[in-house]
Write a structure and sequence with these properties.
The protein is of the alpha+beta class. It is 33% helix and 17% strand. It is built from six helices and seven strands, in the order ααβαβαβββαββα. The strands form two sheets. A four-stranded antiparallel sheet has the order 1-2-4-3. A three-stranded mixed sheet has the order 5-6-7, with helices on one face. Helix 5 links the parallel strand 5 (151-153) and strand 6 (180-185).
């Protein structure tokens, strides 16, 4: 499937089969993560065959089942750290979907102390992404904001801008809060995060979706 189809099909999955991430699939995913790390100045890590991080009471609260693989989102704090984490991690999420894997963003409902994450000096963990072969394909959220709830323009809305915002509305956000906005001023797009849990990570995620939908580069503007 192409990247746009992956964006439309991808839903959060919390229950996984015992099928391992191995061989050519594991190698390709690790290579992709390495490229994202280089581009985004991050230290994301794929951890496989490790069930302890999701074996605590928090796991039951988060309703996760049989999670044995995850991607740790790691890097050094900086003003744009959270956005970079969201932007480049969503690249990994959609790549995984294209490869036939399923994912779920996880902020708190895993054990940081039991997770096998390697931290270099000055680094911290932003969040993790559960990953593997899902017991199901997940389902879309029942509610979603409308286009006009999250964007505004000075005049008529160009089709490329509309397509970008519609793609952003497909993006995963913490507790599906969708606390972001896009403003078009002339040819300039201003993306903003609202107040909310992980809202700056969410902003990085929706920026990547906007780029995919609009065909316009946004991240480093």
């Amino acid at each position: 499937m192409d990247i746009m189809e992956a964006m439309q099909r991808r839903h959060s999955v919390r229950a996984y089969t015992d099928r391992k991430i191995e061989g050519a699939v594991k190698e390709e995913l690790e290579q992709f993560i390495a490229q994202c790390n280089a581009d985004g100045n991050l230290h994301m890590q794929l951890i496989v065959n490790e069930p302890k991080a999701f074996a605590s009471k928090l796991n039951h609260y988060g309703m996760f089942s049989n999670v044995k693989n995850y991607v740790a989102i790691v890097g050094k704090p900086a003003p744009d750290f959270d956005e970079r984490c969201g932007y480049y991690s969503e690249k990994v999420v959609l790549k995984a979907q294209q490869m036939g894997l399923n994912t779920c963003w996880v902020g708190l409902t895993y054990s940081k102390h039991k997770a096998e994450i390697k931290l270099s000096a000055g680094e911290k963990v932003s969040c993790v992404i559960a990953i593997g072969y899902g017991a199901n394909q997940g389902k879309a959220h029942g509610r979603s904001k409308k286009l006009n709830d999250v964007c505004k323009t000075d005049g008529a809305m160009p089709e490329w801008f509309r397509a970008g915002v519609e793609a952003a509305l497909l993006a995963p956000t913490a507790v599906h809060q969708q606390k972001f906005s896009f403003t078009l001023q002339g040819d300039d797009v201003i993306a903003s995060a609202g107040l909310g849990f992980y809202s700056k990570v969410d902003l990085g995620i929706v920026k990547y979706h906007f780029e995919l939908g609009s065909g316009r580069k946004l991240w480093f503007r």
